[in-house]
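Q&A log
Question type: sequence-to-structure
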Amino acid sequence: MSDFARISASPHILAMEVARKKFKLPPVRKIDESLIYQDYPTLKLSKKDVNNIIELIEGGFSVKEIAEAYDVTESTIRYHLQRRNQKIA
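Response status: OK
Response body:
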């Protein structure tokens, strides 16, 4: 892909390229997203996991029990439930 095609594909990329050249910044590096998740295991909850957690909450399990089963904190469980607008018992 040519530089022009890559830059014109997104206005954000164009803005970054203009700023990079204007301020003589180094090129932007591609970030390996797997490294992000390696330090934050709570980010690994998939949509399926969250759906299962909602079913467990509705089935009467406590947030503490679910957090232990998924090896995450209780705050993580509450966060995902709040994002899905689920009431916590």
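Response note: The chain has a mean pLDDT of 76.
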